[in-house]
């Protein structure tokens, strides 16, 4: 099993040290430590951790703002480990996409399941996002191929299956995706129309 790489962002040196010892005693690898949000962002971008454990109240850039940036960049799941539990902060944490929120003082039994679940949820989210992107691409390809087929049927008098076969064959012959072939057909006929005007 792969060792989980953790980035700790905590402005209190003693808390940071205790957390590091605790994590390492459980087989986690602490790959970086940050004392404020700006350093946390720099280290996360550079080190690409599996999970980030972050305090909310830190100098220079607080955990909420740092988490917002890191979540948008989809670097790693973020767990807030903080002494603050007021509803407003919890709401802000939800808004920026933090996957877990643990209040200090915490028990080891709270932290380790949160880490494992955060990593699992993050991987699920990435897979879902990829599936959505693939579906969008497939839909766009289908729309373009349908449009190109329509043009070929209209202008060249081809039947639908003949137009499709022509696009498919060009895709195989040129070793290019059908989407690119369809775009080329559409563009070629648009340019032809402009010249004729």
TrEMBL record:
What keywords sit in the KW lines? Cytoplasm, Phosphoprotein, Stress response, Transcription, Transcription regulation, Two-component regulatory system
- Cellular component GO terms, alphabetical: cytoplasm
**Primary residence:** cytoplasm
Q: Which Gene3D superfamilies match?
A: 3.40.50.2300, Winged helix-like DNA-binding domain superfamily/Winged helix DNA-binding domain
Modified-residue entries (4-aspartylphosphate), positions: 55
GO molecular function terms attached to this record = RNA binding
Residues in domain Response regulatory? 5-119
Every copy of the ANTAR domain together lies at 125-186
Its subcellular locations are: Cytoplasm
Tell me which Pfam families the record gives.
Answer: ANTAR, Response_reg
InterPro entries, alphabetized: ANTAR, CheY-like_superfamily, Sig_transdc_resp-reg_antiterm, Sig_transdc_resp-reg_receiver, WH-like_DNA-bd_sf
Does the entry feature the keyword Hydrolase, yes or no? no
Q: Which GO terms describe its biological process?
A: phosphorelay signal transduction system
- What functional role does this protein have? In addition, the PdtaR/PdtaS two-component system controls copper and nitric oxide (NO) resistance downstream of the intramembrane protease Rip1. This coupled Rip1/PdtaS/PdtaR circuit controls NO resistance and acute lung infection in mice by relieving PdtaR/PdtaS-mediated repression of isonitrile chalkophore biosynthesis. Two signals are required to fully inactivate the PdtaR/PdtaS system and mediate NO resistance: a cytoplasmic inhibitory signal through the PdtaS kinase mediated by direct sensing of NO and the production of PPE1-5', an NO-induced small RNA, to sequester PdtaR. Member of the two-component regulatory system PdtaR/PdtaS. This two-component system plays an essential role in mycobacterial adaptation to poor nutrient conditions. PdtaR probably acts at the level of transcriptional antitermination rather than transcriptional initiation.
Q: What is this protein called?
A: Transcriptional regulatory protein PdtaR
């Amino acid at each position: 099993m792969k060792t989980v790489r953790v980035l700790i962002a905590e402005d209190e040196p003693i808390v940071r040290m205790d957390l590091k010892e605790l994590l390492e005693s459980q087989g986690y690898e602490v790959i970086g430590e940050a004392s404020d949000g700006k350093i946390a962002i720099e280290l996360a971008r550079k080190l690409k951790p599996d999970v980030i454990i972050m305090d909310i109240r830190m100098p220079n850039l607080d955990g909420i703002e740092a988490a917002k940036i890191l979540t948008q960049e989809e670097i790693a799941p973020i767990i807030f480990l903080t002494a603050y539990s007021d509803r407003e902060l919890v709401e802000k944490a939800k808004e920026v996409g933090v996957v877990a929120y643990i209040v200090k003082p915490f028990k080891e039994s709270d932290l380790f399941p949160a880490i494992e679940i955060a990593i699992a949820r993050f991987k699920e989210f990435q897979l879902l996002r990829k599936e959505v992107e693939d579906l969008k691409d497939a839909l766009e390809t289908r729309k373009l191929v349908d449009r190109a087929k329509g043009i070929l049927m209209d202008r060249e008098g081809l039947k639908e299956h003949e137009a499709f076969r022509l696009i498919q064959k060009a895709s195989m012959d040129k070793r290019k995706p059908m989407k690119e072939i369809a775009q080329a057909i559409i563009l070629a006929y648009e340019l032809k129309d402009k010249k004729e005007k």
